[in-house]
Write a structure and sequence with these properties.
With 168 residues, the protein is of the alpha+beta class. It has five helices and six strands, in the order ααββββββααα. Strand 1 and strand 2 form a beta hairpin.
Length: 168
């Protein structure tokens, strides 16, 4: 009980929701609508806003680089990471130029990236699986990344990924 009391104190709340006039410490913010953490928000000299969106499951992490220009939201890139047991490794990346951000587009691109990675690894290991099975596995992994932070088992997954998010 003492450690819980130590962890939850005025300093924690002041860093997350500071008093007026004090800057907020860079804490990832959960966006329930997009089912991802929002990190590294900043504004360019031209007034455009940028942020990273991070969603994950027990095996992969999907990082979206998003730009807000005037009243449009663009996807700048999607990065796919996998855990190697100790840290995350970049396994796929796609860059985009002036592509409107659309949730279905992000999902399809992520599924294709996972599928491409799995297919490549299977070829290198000389393993043959039906394409439908690879597609289903890719879809299941990506769907796992869209699980809500408010779900019961999310705490265990959060303890695995939080050090990696802070490392970025």
């Amino acid at each position: 009980m003492a450690t819980l009391t130590k962890a939850i104190n005025k300093n924690l709340f002041d860093s997350i929701l500071p008093t007026f006039g004090n800057p907020r410490v860079h804490v990832p913010v959960w966006d329930e609508g997009q089912k991802m953490f929002i990190c590294e928000e900043h504004e360019s000299g031209n007034g455009h806003r940028y942020y990273l969106g991070i969603r994950f499951c027990d095996r992969i992490v999907i990082v979206e680089k998003v730009g807000l220009y005037h009243s449009w939201t663009y996807i700048d890139s999607i990065e796919l990471y996998a855990f190697n047991g100790q840290r995350m490794e970049l396994i796929q990346k796609r860059d985009y130029d002036k592509v409107f951000r659309n949730e279905e587009f992000i999902r399809q691109e992520s599924e294709q990236m996972v599928k491409d990675f799995l297919t490549g690894v299977m070829k290198m290991q000389r393993v043959c699986l039906p394409a439908e099975q690879t597609t289903e596995q890719a879809k299941a992994l990506v769907n796992g990344c869209y699980k809500s932070f408010l779900d019961q088992d999310f705490n265990t997954r959060l303890t695995q990924i939080l050090p990696q998010i802070e490392q970025r």
